[in-house]
Amino acid sequence: MNFFNNNVQPDKAGLPRWKRVLDVSLILLALPVLIPLILVIVAIIRIVSKGSILFQQERVGFLGGKFMCLKFRTMFVGADTVSHQGHLHHLINSDAPMMKMDSHGDSRIILFGRWLRSSGLDELPQLINVLRGEMSLVGPRPCLPYESEKYLPWQKERFNAMPGLTGLWQVNGKNRTTFVKMMQLDIQYARNKGLWLDLGIILKTIPALMVQIWDTHQEKKSLSRTAKTVLQAHHNQ
Questions:
Q1: How far, in Å, CA of 157 to CA of 114, rounded?
Q2: Residues 6 or more apart whose Cβ sits within 8 Å of residue 73
């Protein structure tokens, strides 16, 4: 795998110099903490599931360009994507909160996979995408090609910003918001991106992740209570 894309020139790829410097500097500063954490995650995935550690998926980036986005694999090898497309179609065409499929249970997820996803740790390999100049630390989440095909013309303005690991949407409700609200926040960032906005979003990311982890925990407890209620009702029949 080529970790560094030598063809990317930050000043010509829509990534301002200050943004590139900020991205690389923060990654280098965080390496002493990130390396042990990454090794632990690699060991967990290797123990609980057969297959590759990393998952590569084509995503849509800056100005609609395509690139291979990296993640830690949290699903069983060969898991289908048809159900995800149906779920996404529902979110785009409704006012429903942007909840992930696994928030209500997903048999495709490996052991500890749900925790990796709710904490955002599954996205750590995207730091490689950042170093390659395909992503930034801050920006709209890179979408899937079949998702971009459903965008309305005004929604495509989100591609005017480099995709990121975290962003304005993530620190303003994320899974509690609707698809349209996500688009509005992404476009707001694309129009107003700057150093202080990026720093503010980065500082708010950890608290936002804590809320996301708490929400996932509460949903798991709710599902457990529902399952117990159903079993009890069946037993009493």
A1: 31
A2: 45, 49, 51, 52, 53, 54, 55, 110
Token pair listed for 189: 């960032």
- The pLDDT confidence band at residue 14, using thresholds 50, 70 and 90, is low
SS3 25: helix
CA torsion, points 163, 166, 170, 172, in degrees to nearest 10? -100
For residues 170 and 4, give the distance between their C-alpha atoms in angstroms, rounded to a whole number: 27
What DSSP letter does each residue of 163-218 carry, written as one string?
-EEE-TTTTTTGGGS-HHHHHHHHHHHHHH--HHHHHHHHHHHHHHHHHHHHHHHH
For residue 95, give the nearest of 175, 152, 28, 177 by alpha carbon.
177
Cα separations in angstroms, 48 against 45, 75, 114, 217: 5, 11, 13, 21
Q: Residue 209: its pLDDT value, please?
A: 87
Helix (H, G, I), strand (E, B) or coil at 16: coil
Alpha-carbon separation of residue 46 from 109, 110, 118, 183 (angstroms) = 14, 11, 19, 36
Element (H, E) at 58: strand 54-60
